[in-house]
Write a structure and sequence with these properties.
The protein is α/β, with parallel strands linked by helices. The protein contains 19 helices and 22 strands. Strands 1, 2, 3, 4, 5, 20, 21 and 22 form an eight-stranded mixed sheet that branches. Strands 6, 13, 14, 15, 16, 17, 18 and 19 form an eight-stranded mixed sheet that branches. The protein has a six-stranded mixed sheet with strand order 7-8-9-10-12-11. Helix 2 packs across helix 7. It starts with a strand and ends with a strand. The structure holds zinc ion (ZN).
Amino acid sequence: MDSIWTGGKIYSVDSSFNIYTGMAVKNGKILALGSTESISSMYKSKNSYSLNGKYVYPGFIDAHCHFIGYGLSQKQINLKGTNSWQECLKELQKFAKEKNIQPGEWITGRGWDQTVWNIKEWPDNEELSRIFPDIPVFIRRVDGHAGIANKLAIKLANISSLTRIEGGQIMIKNGQLTGLMTDNAMDLIIAGIPAANESQITEALQVAASNCYAVGLTGVVDCGISYDQAEIIQKVQESGNLKMKIYAMLSDEPANFTAILQKGKINTPSLKVRSFKVYGDGALGSRGACLLKDYTDMQGHRGFMLSSKEHFDSVASFLYNNDLQMCTHAIGDSSNRTILGIYARYLRGPNDRRWRIEHAQVIDPQDFGAFRRFNIIPSVQPTHATSDMYWAEQRLGPERIHSAYAYRSLLYQNNWLPLGTDFPVEDISPFKTFASAVFRQDEKDWPPEGFEPENAINRTQALRGMTFWAAKSTFEENDKGSLEPGKAADFIIVDTDIMQATHQQILKATVWETVINGEIVYSIRR
Ligand SMILES: [Zn+2]
């Protein structure tokens, strides 16, 4: 026996939602579950742990995040929580000084959000360029779908007021570039930023993993990395320096299609590469989401798709024929309709391909049924609802808002729903996901009755969404996602009973221990 755990409340999250008080682990897998008495009398181990009345859950799995991106962002400036553009500029100056950034080195980062500023207007780069004349700066909006560059960064990318780019906007005011750009236009800037090398990625993986263990994550779906990066993950895992289980979606780049054909899928116990992440449209905050009708707060504007229909179709055809999973970012109702239609052409009817739509954020009421008819899996992030609720109705109006962030309606299409956070867009904590999904309130308990509360899901559904259903969304439900004999011993010990606690108690829940394959990877009590 590796270890025996007794004296707690163990939520197995199996199909009957059984609760136990004791558990035995052998060879990294769960051997048995039962009462404290039966487990202690049947099994002996040098490692017998008392759970001290604490609560055990299957390790949380984030069904949609940017794991490497989050790890790398720990070395970049984080502008989340800033209240004005002036404050961003101040933070940038502080960062440049602290990190001793030299001329020619880049400053990159993310997190500003004009919708929460006192003056809710797009910034321009006048002052940014004055402060940093010889350091290129590019900082993205919180959703990653818009960014602002200073003049030097724009010069390095050869962008002028005449530059046009499909699927992206370069914003111009009084004939002048403002430094702002959205979606595909940002790629012009990003192409010039030196890519992270192997040692930086290795470090990013480890930093990201240790932060994730501390909030109870034992598995993540990294949405949109390169095949090369997946190979680095595999190498670090094989060296024993990374226990996190990773399902990596490859990004929609020619090199990744070539690599998967030449080198094949990756299938180890800790790393799976068998899917692609495709971008349908942009984000709602930057008005890049593609809507069927005009934005309520911008007449004549409906957003845009990031690629042609032909492109989505050819990717779908390739993935279908090579038995790969397609996962497409779709926010606006038009984007969702387009992608559902393309999926339907290949899936044709009931199937078990588990093709996913990431976010599935604004759905025309007519289109919910397509998720059911073609077994298309919506992959949603409940904290987006409670972050966006302050301005989403301005963008969508009083009607469309009812079928936006509609997690309960989406859940009932296939009777299962994977949950994620989209970190670093949102905080990494799965407890916030749980709280948002169930209470539809933000950390200030706002709004008191919950945002569009008819689309809340219940606690059992939310817990399944973060564990078993997240594993199912990556074809791994037989190996993990619930605590059952024969499955991986991936579990967490928490001080709070999230199935009973209040909203605020859930937000304050503390992870005591995180265990992956029977090995304690994080502990605050030892
Ligand atoms: Zn994402």
